[in-house]
Design a protein that fits this description.
- It is a single chain.
- This protein is mainly beta.
- It has two helices and 13 strands; from the N terminus they run E-E-H-E-H-E-E-E-E-E-E-E-E-E-E.
- The protein has helices at 17-21, 33-40, and strands at residues 2-4, 7-9, 26-28, 49-56, 62-67, 70-76, 81-82, 85-86, 96-103, 107-112, 117-122, 133-137, 141-149.
- The strands form three sheets. The chain has a six-stranded antiparallel sheet, covered by helices on one side. A five-stranded antiparallel sheet has the order 8-7-6-5-12.
- The protein starts with a strand and ends in a 6-residue tail after the last strand.
């Protein structure tokens, strides 16, 4: 539980044991979404990975991250939605959003803005789509991007 300006709220964060499974940190200094997407291409075929990113929208539109055609994170600023569900950040004037994304062989977990919003979805690429990781949105700026390939807990 955390106290916000709107009162006490439940925040969800990854369990600390996830940190133990992380391999080397890779970071990208590129601010351009296309170059940030290019950076993530090296991880297209890893079984498990953690991606931490913050990006800034330039317009009140939507932006996010796809993996092989599957939308794993989509923030719609017009309708205050993440993947179609209502979300309003604590700072309603901010054009920035952060995501801590954990991907394994069968599922994807996403923790938004430090855990203020979280969800899990099935990992299911579009058939025949192998474009890998790709940021999308109208002139978005990737403010930070870190990737951590992960070891299996079973090894």
């Amino acid at each position: 539980l955390r106290t916000t300006k709107e009162g006490v709220r439940l925040f969800n964060v990854p369990v600390k044991e996830v940190d133990i499974l992380q391999e080397k940190e890779f970071s990208c200094e590129e601010k351009d979404a296309n170059k940030a997407s290019d950076f993530l291409q090296q991880f297209n075929d890893v079984a498990s990975i953690r991606i931490r990113t913050t990006f800034k929208l330039s317009h009140a539109t939507d932006a996010g991250l796809n993996l092989n055609g599957q939308t794993i994170f989509k923030y719609d600023l017009n309708y205050n939605q993440i993947n179609g569900l209502f979300y309003s950040p604590e700072d309603r004037t901010s054009m920035e959003i952060s995501a801590d994304i954990i991907i394994d062989k069968t599922s994807i977990e996403v923790f938004v803005d430090g855990g203020a919003f979280s969800y899990a979805i099935e990992r299911k690429a579009d058939a025949g789509n192998n474009e890998g990781f790709k940021f999308f949105g109208n002139s978005i700026e990737v403010k930070s991007l870190k990737a951590y390939p992960m070891n299996s807990i079973w090894e």
